[in-house]
Write a structure and sequence with these properties.
The complex is a heterodimer of chains A (203) and B (319). Chain A is α/β, with parallel strands linked by helices and 203 residues long. Chain A has 3 helices and 8 strands; from the N terminus they run E-H-E-H-E-E-H-E-E-E-E. Chain A is globular, with a radius of gyration of 17 Å. Chain B is α/β, with parallel strands linked by helices. Classes of the chains: A alpha/beta (203), B alpha/beta (319).
């Protein structure tokens, strides 16, 4: 994040052409707060299991794991779960979306699974993630962290931990990106103006 | 972009191949799960239409379809009555009436999958047609080599055996050339097609010269069922000259891998000690075969001829 703006809400024109709703500092603060909230509510830290939904969930889950280590000195497993093969729109689209990595390092049975995603919209990705998760075992509970909740839910799914609520137009695109497109460096969440026939990134 | 059908590697470009391999890499992970099934193709019907006997390829496609939750039907057909183009087209029309989502075809005559594709609106996947192509075999070989060597670009690969009658050789020549590898072929002179060098390969009759310094040695199966005595006077002589064993392999790179599309005629194409030496690679080919076929079924099923009202050809990714 190269922007000098102390308050990104007031930044009407970031370099990428959309409006920045969370910059790297805001994202880090939100993840620290969420880590505290999870620890506050969780009675058995050994059973925590962070499951990131790629691509955006991965750096967020890693940061949460680092925060757990820092706050409570616990090592929380981080898994990555691609939901593409569980999507509900595959039957109506001829063009197949790209698959992403799935890497579940340990069994999910009897674990408290925390799904981590960057932007929540319709709830369909979380539905798919829950179905995928059940194929890996039987977690004792499943909770959801979303960095940004942009509204427009189409399924009865709510977030347990929210970084920030961001009201949006349905056709706007909200995406999390890193500097120069990589997700390992500084992150930001940008709302892009809607395009006709926009594709990707809407959740 | 990958078309509706997969009839041969010749029709694909490098980006298509990369996309299939990338998808297959992700499909491998499903095979390592306790529950080896994802709901992706639930409610889809895939027909295995094998006019020529096959155990490995047919079960590989069947497992691939089932791991994606498709209904897989094996349609066994007597080869003799279906050699006429007319009855093949009748079969295809019958299949069309059954509203299938993909058809996997193997036939002893080159071009039959194409003929079927021409009348079906559902995608057709060639599982081997005569001496023409066997595209999923070449894709699984690419995946195996890439996983072993980390790349394909710049490698040298020697394909050894009956190049003339081998669809595996043809598909692999296209595949490895398109991915930037140097390809050599070797075999008895009567088994090397006259114009093979137009495909961008170097032909050898000396096995030693062919495998000198190569990264990959791919032995082809001697297809006894296709060969009359004129092509192969003596299997023992073939084995002595072109059978791969540890001694001959010394001319290849130290870390060269030995591949075989299976089933191996032990002691003919590969010596016993080599078949058991690193069986991992040959068994990885089988494992990768399922992943590659899952990738192809995933990418193609759902495609239909344009104008088919059953499908939305849009590429949106609304989640």
């Amino acid at each position: 994040m190269t922007s000098q703006q102390p308050n990104p809400h007031l930044n009407p024109k970031p370099p990428s052409g959309g409006r920045v709703v969370m910059d790297d500092v805001a994202i880090r603060r939100a993840l620290m707060r969420i880590a505290h909230e999870v620890l506050e509510r969780c009675e058995n830290l050994e059973r925590l299991y962070l499951v990131a939904i790629p691509n955006g969930g991965v750096p967020l889950a890693r940061q949460l794991a680092a925060n757990f280590k820092q706050i409570a000195d616990v090592d929380v497993v981080v898994g990555v779960l691609d939901t593409t093969l569980y999507r509900d729109d595959l039957k109506i689209k001829a063009e197949r979306p790209r698959l992403r990595e799935t890497e579940m390092p340990s069994a999910v049975d009897d674990r408290i699974v925390i799904l981590v995603d960057d932007v929540l919209k319709t709830g369909r990705t979380i539905r798919a993630a829950m179905d995928a998760l059940m194929d890996f075992g039987r977690p004792s509970s499943v909770q959801v962290v979303g960095l940004v909740d942009r509204g427009h839910r189409e399924l009865p799914i709510k977030l347990d931990y929210v970084g920030k609520n961001v009201p949006t137009q349905p056709d706007e695109e909200v995406r999390m990106s890193g500097s120069e497109g990589n997700l390992d460096g500084a992150l930001e969440v940008v709302v892009m103006p809607g395009e006709p026939e926009s594709s990707g990134g809407t959740r | 972009m990958i078309g509706r059908d997969l009839l041969g590697i010749e029709d694909l470009d490098r980006a298509d191949i990369e996309r299939i391999l990338e998808t297959a890499e992700h499909m491998r992970e499903i095979g390592r799960r306790v529950i080896k099934k994802v709901p992706t193709l639930r409610g889809r019907t895939i027909v295995n239409l094998f006019f020529e006997s096959s155990t490995r390829t047919k079960s590989s496609f069947e497992i691939a379809g089932k791991r994606l939750s498709a209904d897989v039907i094996n349609f066994a057909a007597a080869a003799s009555s279906l050699k006429k183009a007319e009855s093949i087209l009748d079969t295809a029309r019958n299949l069309e009436a059954m509203d299938l989502d993909a058809v996997v075809v193997r036939h002893a005559v080159a071009g039959v999958p194409k003929q079927i594709a021409d009348v079906l609106s559902a995608p057709v996947i060639n599982a081997g047609d005569g001496a023409h192509e066997h595209p999923t075999q070449a894709l699984l070989d690419l995946l195996t080599v890439r996983r072993e060597k980390g790349r394909i670009d710049g490698l040298t690969i020697a394909i050894v055996g009956d190049i003339l009658h081998s669809r595996v050789a043809r598909s692999n020549i296209y595949a490895f050339r398109k991915m930037g590898a140097e390809v050599r072929v070797a075999g008895p002179p009567q088994m090397i097609p006259a114009a093979i060098e137009t495909l961008g390969v170097k032909a050898f009759t000396s096995l030693r010269e062919a495998i000198d310094g190569v990264d990959v040695v791919m032995a082809l199966r001697i297809q006894n069922e296709r060969l009359t005595g004129t092509y192969l006077p003596s299997v023992r002589e073939y084995s002595a000259t072109y059978g791969i064993d540890r001694e001959k392999l010394k001319f290849a790179k130290d870390d060269a891998i030995v591949m075989h599309p299976g089933p191996v005629n032990r002691g003919v194409e590969l010596s016993h000690d080599l078949t058991d030496h690193r069986p991992g690679v040959i068994l990885d080919q089988v494992r990768n075969g399922v992943a590659v076929r899952m990738a192809v079924l995933y990418l193609l099923s759902g495609r239909r001829q344009e104008g088919d009202p059953r499908v939305d050809l849009g590429s949106g990714e609304e989640k």
